Amino acid sequence: MVKLEEISTKPSFSNQLENKMLYSNHSNDISISYTSTYTLKYVIEGIKHYNYNNENIEVSKNQYLILNNSKITTEAKKGTKGLSFFLSSELLNEILNYHTTSTTSFEFIEATQKQSNNKVRLFLEQITYLYENDRMTLQQQIEDLFIKLSELIVQEQNAIDNKFTRLKIVKHDTKRDLYRSILKAEEYLQDNLARDISLEILSKDIGISKYYLHRLFTEIHGDTPLKYLTGIRLQKAKNKLRYSTASIFETAIACGFDNTSYFSNIFKAHTGVSPSQFRKAF
Hints:
This protein is of the alpha+beta class. Helices cover 50% and strands 20% of the residues.
């Protein structure tokens, strides 16, 4: 049975710590240490800091982090809101065995997930909405929601593990560090998409060679770094064309394209219509 709890003060963690969903809305600054099972931390408002294996990990609004069995110290300021899902190792291993033939112990890569469009993040938003707006439905569906969330995170982790296996990388600490490098590369590209970015500039910022970054990013992400950059530039351009009055030229420059002609060609190649035609459709 999945247990649902809500806290506003410092929790004691003296009760059930598996198969539990905990909503926190801190009325004061907190700092607490405890030994936990597998746990997913999702921040709804504010910023939380987790000290895990002598490492400080920051999780901001709409981001999540999955931690393995270990001692955790949580720090949060007054007004911070979040959801914690304390996961049963028995359930996770059952899901893993259903989807794979692996007999090894399960380990998540401890990295803050910031992507806004992945399945886990979208599902967490759905659970948060139910908690804050339709508690009765959440109570009725909590078992199914908890199992579905567990399945999504196992599938996500298994997909990452398979990609590292193809790269012949098996050590957990190595996978974690390299995966964080990929997340850092994605964040750099998103934050600097209007700038002139090359693979050399990106590799220097991340701290690994151009070749290895290209190979690693392509295997883990599915696109080369520069294709990924083009994709997020085009997505920003679509949003500007729909929701702003900026000219085509202004939109192109703001999204990192050198000139209107190049922008129009790339845009049409990916969408099938010119920027002007796209804007008129809305």
